[in-house]
């Protein structure tokens, strides 16, 4: 039977978030916290929580819950919590402080985020995020995060894409690193106090569900290979996004989807997997040898101007091309926002000029990001103070001096807006399983505005999860559930059997070759532009690739030692299954919105064309079993505070 004649999915019952109170939007979060049940300090010591991940979301949550008195087990696959991928974030963190007195407010941050997500995010969660943003900055300043300051002593701000105000707080081009150090020192304090038990170099390979509740995880000690069972009253996933499904992305090579995907297979719905973000400001691919791509912060678009030659045959040194022969295409097409249009808009615009044959650099896959005007206006010293480490990084990678010649940039896979479905309490469809940060779907719709990832991670970890998890734990205890419980034993045995299968196939193809091929399929057919024909083809190719993987993958070594090939095999197997669901999700969504651009659905000017009548919903996918079709549950998106209309940044 051909792939086109098979049903790709089945329809399930609608789903809804029932946790947000029926009060005015500005009162929902306060009301929900007031309604939440409390756990007194003595009883907190009797409750345990497993948190997977030590980035801004996971690390902040572990530190906060440990300080509250809960017993926390925190896991990461890195050798230190400080190596979590949040460290790579560069440009800044948003907050509606309105220090610039330029018209910003909680409501404007809320509006910009919903509009930036192309009206495909849940209104109540986004409003809470905007409210919480102002508390995050105070928390981080108190921790000693060295935010940039302006001459009067106030914290400095800069703009990011999709907004017309300056609300982004930053620490040069290393904001993520500084924020993570703040969370890390709070976490280490609790580790020293004994409330947090840290497990580094451990990878979660499955979640244990007992009587319908998440009660633990199975993890592999990546040094010894020991498969361990850990039990608790609740499980929290703060494990980041799944951009590495494309093989080449701006994510660290270790970033993966395994924790979320194993939870999905145990009943957690996966929402909007096709909503992936292509970042417009990355160093272009230089050859087949690359294993990852390098991000250049979006903050560079504050002062850098993006352009290509008007004539595609113009191969002169960019410094020799006069102004009249340059096309500052973002400033031309979007005069109101210029170079600060949202990421999805800027990425597609770059692709369009390159497709027209006006791209620059090897293969014509690049555009210029030019700081000549900024250096002339502000002076090199000022530019260096704001962006120096980014310029140094670019020079080290490319061998070119960006102070003297324009940078070359091109879009690349970056963030993922899709993730596990959660309600207003950040609880997944599996009771007791909470999901925070990039691992959940809730805040960014079809496109994330720059500097909002750090905001969501810290909001969830420091302020949203703790009271909601306490509300859940107020109902504990949930019954005895030790490592010897039949479900726990079965889950651990399943993990061991899967490991043995990987080691026993003894095929001829490397894990990385499968990952690279999957990435090529995903980028080609489910990347910046998607079509019905291409997505249908991709589903067939991925299914063939999965069959070949389980027949011919080569995993050398043994389990009882450090075995990175074995680690990657498990991650790539999960990426292959996720890739198929991403293509199915993109195929079923017959509209263009944010990062999901279906070529069949665009305006005459080439902009994304949404279909609010038929697709104003969250697609929450239920695992259909091995060999079965995924089941689609729809959560209708209802907007009461913001009018749903076609985006315009002109």
TrEMBL record:
One of its GO terms (cellular component) is plasma membrane. Its EC number is 1.3.5.1. Transmembrane segments: none annotated. It catalyses: a quinone + succinate = fumarate + a quinol. Residues 1-27 are annotated as: Disordered. Coiled coil: none annotated. It comes from the Bacteria. One of its GO terms (molecular function) is succinate dehydrogenase (quinone) activity. The active site is at residue 343. Its cofactor is FAD. Residues 49-454 form the FAD-dependent oxidoreductase 2 FAD-binding domain. It is a peripheral membrane protein. InterPro entries: FAD-dep_OxRdtase_2_FAD-bd, FAD/NAD-bd_sf, Fum_R/Succ_DH_flav-like_C_sf, Fum_Rdtase/Succ_DH_flav-like_C, SdhA/FrdA/AprA, Succ_DH/Fum_Rdt_flav_su, Succ_DH/fumarate_Rdtase_cat_sf. Signal peptide: none annotated. GO terms for biological process: anaerobic respiration. It is an enzyme of class 1 (oxidoreductase). Keywords: Cell membrane, Electron transport, FAD, Flavoprotein, Membrane, Oxidoreductase, Transport. It is found in: Cell membrane. Residues 515-649 form the Fumarate reductase/succinate dehydrogenase flavoprotein-like C-terminal domain. Belongs to the FAD-dependent oxidoreductase 2 family. FRD/SDH subfamily. This is succinate dehydrogenase.
